[in-house]
Amino acid sequence: MQTGNAIIGMDTKSLIKTAIVEDQRDIREGLAMLINGTEGYHCTGSYRSMEEALAQISREMPDVVLSDIGLPGMDGIQGIKILKERYPEMLILILTVYDDDDRIFDALCAGACGYLLKRTSPARLLECLKEAVTGGAPMSPEVASRVITLFRDIRPPERADYELTPHETRLLKLLVDGHNYTTSAEELGVSINTIKFHMRNIYDKLQVHSKSEAVAKALRDRLVN
User: Fold this and answer.
1) I need a surface site. Which of 54, 91, 93, 171 has the fewest CB within 10 A?
2) pLDDT one digit per residue (tens) for the chain, 225 residues
3) For the whole prediction, is pTM greater than 0.85?
4) Is the Cα torsion angle 123, 177, 195, 162 positive or negative in sign?
5) Other C-beta atoms within 10 Å of 63: how many?
6) CATH of domain 158-220
7) What are residue 209's DSSP bridge partners?
8) Separation between Cα atoms, residue 219 and residue 175, nearest integer Å
9) Number of H-type helices and E-type strands within the chain
10) Do residues 72 and 23 lie in contact, with contact meaning Cβ atoms separated by under 8 Å?
């Protein structure tokens, strides 16, 4: 494992703390250098496998985990499920070469907050990390279009009833439409803390652990129009 250098003279609370799970050494080291070399970002650790990450990630908890899918041993999707069970608030952003429907669908349903392809530019990657911690669901353009097609082609079951309030349903609709916590708060005329309060209720009622899981369930079960 390789860990980021200590940050001196900076408020660590304001940093976007990121862990990396990537088996290819050159990519792993390049990502760590990019993150540690950019003001406002800090690499808490870089791991060669999901097993290594699961064993050591709690030593310095990240805000976001940037994970590949094709890993030796346990794959990234299995790892997402375990990480979300252990740390429900942890954000997991996929960074992979795979853009097939099955892996995209499985990763998002497992709890990934976004899905990026490895050809994503360094500048865009940093933007996506920031977007993730502010409640967004960053995706490469090709992936986003596939997600829309994928969910459009799924035949939904009869409309399910999770006893969502009208306010919770409206918030869920905003998230399905691509809003993050900040823009949802603006649309509804409430604070971000109020949005977070309602999201906790939505997560409990839908039995999910992330925004992407909530959006996936809303689309599958026709919870919004």
Assistant:
1) 54
2) 444 444 444 455 689 999 999 999 999 999 999 999 999 999 999 999 999 999 999 999 999 999 999 999 999 999 999 999 999 889 999 999 998 888 898 898 889 999 999 999 999 999 999 999 998 889 998 888 877 777 666 555 555 678 889 889 999 999 888 888 899 999 999 998 899 899 999 999 998 888 888 888 888 888 887
3) no
4) negative
5) 18
6) 1.10.10.10
7) none
8) 11
9) 10, 5
10) yes
**Amino acid at site 19:** A
At position 83, the amino acid (one-letter code) is L
Classify residue 189 by burial, with Cβ atoms within 10 Å: 0-12, 13-18, 19+. Answer: exposed
Domain ranges of the chain: 12-150, 158-220
Indicate the CATH number for domain 12-150: 3.40.50.2300
- Give Cβ neighbours of residue 149 (< 8 Å, ≥ 6 apart): none
Query: From edge to edge, which strands make up the β-sheet containing 41-47?
Result: 41-47, 16-21, 64-67, 91-96, 114-117
Which amino acid belongs to residue 195? I
